[in-house]
Amino acid sequence: MDHFPTFMKNPANAISASSQSKGVQGYVFDGADGSQMAFWECKLDLTSAEHVHDYEEYFVVVQGLYTLIIDGGKIPVTAGQEYHIPKGVPHAGEAVAGTRTIHAFGGLRAKRKDW
Fold first, then answer.
1. What is the mean pLDDT of residues 74-79?
2. Mean pLDDT, to the nearest integer, of 34-53?
3. In what order do the strands lie in the sheet with 24-30?
4. For 55-64, how does the pLDDT look when each residue is reduced to its tens digit (9 = 90+)?
5. Contact (Cβ atoms closer than 8 angstroms) between residue 31 and residue 37
6. Sign of dihedral through CA atoms 9, 108, 20, 15?
7. Mean pLDDT over residues 26-40, rounded?
8. What local confidence, expressed as pLDDT, does residue 95 receive?
9. How far is residue 73's CA from residue 31's CA, in Å, rounded to a whole number?
10. What single DSSP character describes residue 71?
């Protein structure tokens, strides 16, 4: 598969442009405890700016390559690999076009589009 299934891409769950990098299409689902799951498809090569969360982040690469950047070091994460980022750790990332990732956040990370 090169895309997430249609049922996972309901427009009601589309992530706003302000909550994701240019060239990324994402969808978010909220947990009862305030956590979120996000599903992202990278349409273009991208670089995300360094940022930090006050909650934990976990992600798995479904397809492609996501390079995590922590303390200037680059950590390549490929399809089938996962990574856990503790809260308070500054990080950035790079992804190649065609990369798909699934992220779990211990807090509110993504805002939905306003329709």
1. 98
2. 94
3. 24-30, 36-42, 100-105, 57-63, 82-85
4. 999 999 999 9
5. yes
6. positive
7. 95
8. 95
9. 32
10. T
Query: Model's pTM, two decimal places?
Result: 0.91
- Spatial neighbors of 33 by CB under 8 A, at least 6 apart, are none
Model confidence at 20: pLDDT above 80: no
Compute how many other C-beta atoms are within 10 angstroms of the C-beta atom of residue 114: 5
CB distance 65 to 76 below 8 Å: yes
Sort residue 33 into left (φ over 0), alpha (ψ -120 to 50) or beta: alpha
**Any residues with CB less than 8 A from the CB of 73 and at least 6 apart, and which?**
none
Measured CA to CA, the distance from residue 21 to residue 85 in angstroms comes to 19
- How far apart are alpha carbons 45 and 99 in whole angstroms? 9
**In angstroms, rounded to a whole number, what is the distance separating the alpha carbons of residues 51 and 91?**
6
For residue 71, pLDDT beyond 70: yes
Q: Tell me the domains of the chain and their CATH numbers.
A: 14-105 (2.60.120.10)
